[in-house]
Amino acid sequence: MITVKAPTVYVQEANILEQSGSRIAQLGQHVLIIAGESALKAVQPYLLPSLEAHQVKFHVQLFRGEVTTDQIDAFTQQAFGLNVDLIIGVGGGRVLDLSKAVAEQADLPVVTVPTIAATCAAWSALTVLYDDQGQAAGYRPLRRSPNLILADSCILANAPKRYLAAGIGDTLVKWHEFAVNLSGNSASLTLRNSVSTAKLALDILETHAIDVYESTDTTGSTPQFRDVADAIIVLAGLVGSISDGSLHAAIAHGLHDSLTKLPETHASLHGEKVAFGLFTQWILEGKAEAELHEQVNLLHKLNLPITLAQLGIQQQSQEAAARIAAGLQLREGSAAHLSFGVSTTQVTEAILQADRIGQTFIESCQSSESSTYTKEVSSL
């Protein structure tokens, strides 16, 4: 059996929130807006007046902390108490994941308004759960994707570049994570579909990601930015929208979940942890040195972590690597689809090797930059 879960409507336009009221009014007239503090400041001058202009009553509740089952229950009770008929989530992945889960638990439609292009959370029919300490606590599959996604490209383009880089990293992972499963599960139509969709996202990012990341444009109106944002939200979301229940080994995301068990990594974003997980996967795959150098160079240009220190792990790398490897949990039976080993010992060594390569790469870049600077000074 194949299931398909995708949003009813997705809109990405500059300044779309100024006209959002008419679309939202079709879904509900009494709204609970769940928002991050910075996200609310970004959308408040546009979203709230548009709701008022279309006589949509709203309540705003700020969300801080982790997406826990207790938080989902608390916000659900608030939705019941206010007797709202629609949930709107405004912010990054955690706010959007919370909003989706609350809407499903309250049996209400939901609108997602991403203010950063850091994940595909605005699209996916999934909520990532954590505990109160910020450690990964599993996933809650949802019955449906959001009813409406309003992605204001101007707001996305004005967000800190770090979030964009994290979204690029999280999306780069999709093809690499899914494609390695084909060797043991090539008969799965949905897996082949996911690999093809992820390849389109990968092509877009390899072509435009660096230029968009380094661009000073804040209008969000360039075709390159729109493509990159769509790759992060739409294509990455589509990768997981179609399923037949077959297993695949998600190594980079599994390593992300394990990394959350180390408190020193909590300042790192989801996409940053996933990017280092991908680097580790490349080592496990045994990628050739030239290809590995090219891939690591891409991560480095995006300021994504290629060492344990960049994740916040400053000391005892051997012990940390062993803990991360021991915490890697793949779905039972999925490792059989891989053409390489993922034992705890192999993963530990791959993490340490990635860390060593990353350190050497950074040192060589610094040495090259210093040499270039010296030559420029001496020529004056």
TrEMBL record:
Keywords: Metal-binding, NAD, Oxidoreductase, Zinc
Cofactor: Zn(2+)
InterPro entries, alphabetized: ADH_Fe/GldA (IPR001670), ADH_Fe_CS (IPR018211), Glycerol_DH (IPR016205)
Chain residues that bind NAD(+): G93, R94, V95, L96, D97, S124, L126, Y130
UniProt domain Alcohol dehydrogenase iron-type/glycerol dehydrogenase GldA: residue ranges: 7-152
PROSITE patterns hit by this protein: ADH_IRON_1
Pfam families to which the protein is assigned, alphabetical: Fe-ADH
Coiled coil: none
Top-rank taxon: Bacteria
GO function terms (MF aspect): metal ion binding; oxidoreductase activity, acting on CH-OH group of donors
Cofactor binding summary note: Binds 1 zinc ion per subunit.
Ranges that cross the membrane: none
Record flagged with keyword Magnesium: no
Keyword NAD: yes
Binding annotation for glycerol: D170, H253, H270
PANTHER family named in the record: GLYCEROL DEHYDROGENASE (PTHR43616), HYDROXYCARBOXYLATE DEHYDROGENASE A (PTHR43616:SF3)
Recorded family membership: Belongs to the iron-containing alcohol dehydrogenase family.
Protein name: Alcohol dehydrogenase iron-type/glycerol dehydrogenase GldA domain-containing protein
Organism annotation: Paenibacillus xylanivorans
